[in-house]
């Protein structure tokens, strides 16, 4: 099977879909791999490292001519020249329609959309949403810590004693739990919150407090393990619970999300006005509109002395490890596409069937 690795073209995208280690594993499994020159440069993977792993270096057309073309963000319409009819593209489909399923289909290209990997135990090793959320949760805390005017840990020094910062983490999925663990390691007193009852146990197991268990709906989790949108009355109870805690917090990391929907609004401007001046909110949900109503995606704004940061594409800001994790996910998926050394799209496989967008099934 011929695997291609393309360089990312989207602004701010520094990751690469397959790093040299993953390429070496594919070559060991019998694949040939062509990597576009410079594909890994922004993640600090050199062309030499790919060559040492056994890849052939080429231009974009060489890499695009593969059976399976791997990319972080799916190629735009004007990047599809050189793809062969019947090619499989493994990438995030994303929300913008730069290459629509129709365009892909008309060119005979099948997109395996990485965000559609089922949340099953078998698919866990292919789940880029989880691996990249881990990076986002960690980095959000670091951004928050470096934007605060105070320490996170308690300090007892000759110059006096300093109390630890209070951190509130909203949404205790993959990103939120990583944020809780990171904020705890840095010495903050951490409280977590989620509407899924199952999240409480995970929050407590990390040594954090769990906010207002009474505000949780027993049925706020769908069968897929995600949260659903709340009824009005329940949303009001959630806001009331958060409101009191937010006023006491120095650092808020908000990660609440509902798949396919805008981010739930959890932090109103009134709540922000009740926070202490110098506090910081890092809104990891900025990409889908933000959990805070004052968040400007991609910007940092100040309201009543509170800094509100709306970072975009956090995983890309730690491109080396984000790519390493992404690569492992993609490589595991590519392994699933190889049968007797040949590309085989097995539509009876629930993982592949769930991910297919566009092109002709074979
Ligand atoms: P996500 O990114 O969709 O959402 C982040 C968190 O926001 C979730 O925990 C969600 O419950 C929470 N949330 C939604 N609305 C909220 C609100 N109004 N207030 C507070 N919190 C709210 O979720 P995710 O991080 O991708 O993971 C969701 C679940 O799936 C978790 O239980 C996770 O452990 C599980 N999971 C399973 C697998 C697997 O089995 N392969 C892989 C990844 C995640």
> What is the count of structural domains?
2
Rounded to the nearest angstrom, the distance between the terminal CA atoms is 16 Å
Task: Please identify the structural class as seen in this structure.
Answer: alpha/beta
CATH class of the largest domain: Alpha Beta
| CATH-scheme architecture of the largest domain | 3-Layer(aba) Sandwich
- List ligands, each type once: nicotinamide-adenine-dinucleotide
Q: What would you report as the Rg, rounded to the nearest angstrom?
A: 22 Å
**What is the ordering of alpha helices and beta strands?**
EHEHEHEEHEHEEEHEHEHEHEEEHEEHE
- Level of helix content? 25-40%
Spatial arrangement of strands, main beta sheet: 3-2-1-4-5-6-18
The name of the CATH superfamily of the largest domain reads NAD(P)-binding Rossmann-like Domain
Strand percentage lies at 15-25%
Please mark out the parts with pLDDT under 50 across 5 or more consecutive residues, or reply none: none
Per DSSP E runs of 2 or more residues, the count of β-strands stands at: 18
How many H/I helices? Answer: 11
Write down the CATH topology of the largest domain: Rossmann fold
Q: Any idea what the shape is?
A: elongated
Give the averaged pLDDT, no decimals: 93
Q: Tell me about the biggest sheet?
A: 7 strands, mixed
Key features of this structure:
362 residues, alpha/beta, Rossmann fold, 7-stranded mixed β-sheet, 11 helices, 32% helix, 19% strand, binds nicotinamide-adenine-dinucleotide
């Amino acid at each position: 099977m011929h695997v291609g690795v393309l360089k990312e073209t989207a602004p701010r995208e520094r990751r690469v879909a397959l790093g040299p280690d993953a390429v070496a594993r594919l070559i060991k499994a019998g694949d040939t791999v062509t990597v576009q020159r410079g594909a890994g440069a922004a993640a600090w993977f050199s062309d030499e490292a790919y060559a040492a792993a056994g890849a052939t270096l080429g231009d974009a057309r060489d890499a695009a001519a593969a059976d399976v073309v791997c990319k972080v963000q799916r190629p735009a319409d004007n990047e599809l020249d050189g793809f062969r009819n019947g090619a499989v593209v493994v990438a995030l489909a994303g929300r913008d329609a730069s290459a629509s399923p129709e365009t892909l289909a008309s060119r005979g290209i099948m997109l395996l959309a990485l965000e559609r990997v089922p949340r099953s135990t078998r698919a866990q090793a292919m789940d880029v949403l989880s691996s990249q959320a881990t990076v986002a949760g960690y980095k959000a805390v670091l951004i928050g810590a470096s934007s605060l005017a105070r320490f996170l840990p308690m300090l007892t020094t000759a110059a006096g004693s300093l109390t630890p910062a209070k951190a509130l983490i909203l949404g205790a999925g993959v990103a939120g739990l990583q944020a809780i663990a990171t904020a705890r390691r840095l010495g903050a007193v951490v409280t977590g919150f989620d509407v899924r009852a199952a999240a409480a146990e995970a929050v407590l197991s990390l040594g954090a407090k769990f906010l207002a268990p009474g505000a949780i709906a027993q049925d706020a989790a769908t069968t897929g393990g995600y949260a659903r949108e709340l009824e009005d009355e329940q949303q009001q109870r959630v806001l009331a619970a958060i409101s009191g805690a937010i006023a006491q917090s120095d650092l808020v990391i908000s990660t609440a999300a509902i798949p396919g929907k805008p981010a739930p609004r959890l932090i109103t401007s009134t709540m922000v006005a009740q926070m202490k001046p110098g506090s910081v909110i890092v809104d990891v949900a900025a990409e889908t509109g933000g959990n805070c109503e004052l968040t400007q995606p991609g910007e940092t704004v100040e309201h009543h002395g509170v800094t509100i940061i709306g970072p975009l594409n956090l995983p890309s800001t730690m491109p080396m490890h984000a790519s390493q994790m992404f690569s492992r996910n993609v490589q595991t998926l590519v392994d699933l596409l190889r049968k007797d050394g040949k590309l085989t799209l097995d539509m009876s496989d629930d993982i592949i069937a769930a991910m297919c967008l566009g092109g002709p099934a074979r």
